[in-house]
């Protein structure tokens, strides 16, 4: 694992980190969508979203806030990262209740629920980037997971898997707690067909474009997760998803830099090139 940069302006990962490399890849986006589908299989984690968030009525703003948080933690100076993480921890304090599926209580601040969200998220990013043909090695994959322990700990997660082997053991251990439910199926359908203004849905290709991206995200989940959802008609095989992901990544990489990444990532990666002498 690379050390935390000495300069706080470079954040918690910095130039040369595998985190910067993975999160700059266009395939990371579909991997993040895959993670959202998988996260819905944990009843207690999903209950907090279902009962306390505006996911169903404010889908796009919530998705944008999530993406902004991830990019901030990845690339921003440590002062800014610490501030946004503190706000999220504070918001989690009021997210508690009873999960109707299991009958158990939950709190968004529980380390085990934070661990679940983190592991599904980072493995979603990592596996998508690897399957897209990035050439990321096994050693780099393990380094990415080890680096990402920092991100998990910012929100209060503990005992965070730090390698591919530890992630595999974690998923094996947590799978008895996972199940599909009417709530998870509503979440899947919302991800596949989120609300759009009529003008956007009818006058632009946004609806079919998102539908294709949503189906790809569903297909990028681990095979056991796809099957556990029990959603007839959605993909449960790997080949087509891998081909589609490679095509999407290739198309994105052919676009201008300003279309590939947001301003936070572009600024950080430009700084990386300067600091590493253009080798990044």
UniProtKB/TrEMBL annotation:
Keyword Oxidoreductase in record: yes
What residue stretches are annotated with the ER-bound oxygenase mpaB/mpaB'/Rubber oxygenase catalytic domain?
20-247
Question: Is the keyword Disulfide bond assigned to this protein?
Answer: no
Q: Which of the seven top EC classes does this enzyme belong to? A: oxidoreductase
Q: What are the protein's UniProt keywords?
A: Oxidoreductase
Question: What is a single molecular function from GO for this protein?
Answer: oxidoreductase activity
EC number(s)? 1.-.-.-
> Under which name does UniProt file this protein?
Oxygenase MpaB family protein
What organism is this sequence from? Actinomycetospora atypica
């Amino acid at each position: 694992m690379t050390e935390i940069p000495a300069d706080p302006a470079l954040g918690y990962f910095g130039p040369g980190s595998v985190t910067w490399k993975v999160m700059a890849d266009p395939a990371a986006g579909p991997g993040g969508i895959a993670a959202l589908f998988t996260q819905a299989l944990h009843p207690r984690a999903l209950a907090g979203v279902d009962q306390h968030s505006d996911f169903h009525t404010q889908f796009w703003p919530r998705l944008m806030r999530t993406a902004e948080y991830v990019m901030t933690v990845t690339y921003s100076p440590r002062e800014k990262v610490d501030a946004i993480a503190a706000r999220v921890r504070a918001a989690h304090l009021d997210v508690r209740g009873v999960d109707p599926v299991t009958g158990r209580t939950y709190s968004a601040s529980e380390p085990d629920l934070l661990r679940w969200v983190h592991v599904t998220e980072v493995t979603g990013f990592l596996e998508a980037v690897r399957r897209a043909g990035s050439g990321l090695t096994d050693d780099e994959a393990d380094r990415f997971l080890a680096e990402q322990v920092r991100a998990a700990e910012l929100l209060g997660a503990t005992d965070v898997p730090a390698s591919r082997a530890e992630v595999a053991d974690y998923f094996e251990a947590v799978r008895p707690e996972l199940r599909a439910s009417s709530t998870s199926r509503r979440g899947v359908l919302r991800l596949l067909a989120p609300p759009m203004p009529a003008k956007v849905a009818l006058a632009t290709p946004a609806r079919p474009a998102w539908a294709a991206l949503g189906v790809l995200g569903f297909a990028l989940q681990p095979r056991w997760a796809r099957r556990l959802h029990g959603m007839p008609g959605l993909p449960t095989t790997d080949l087509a998803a891998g081909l589609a992901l490679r095509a999407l990544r290739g198309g994105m990489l052919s676009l201008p830099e300003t279309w590939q990444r947001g301003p936070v990532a572009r600024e950080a990666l430009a700084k990386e090139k300067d600091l590493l002498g253009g080798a990044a």
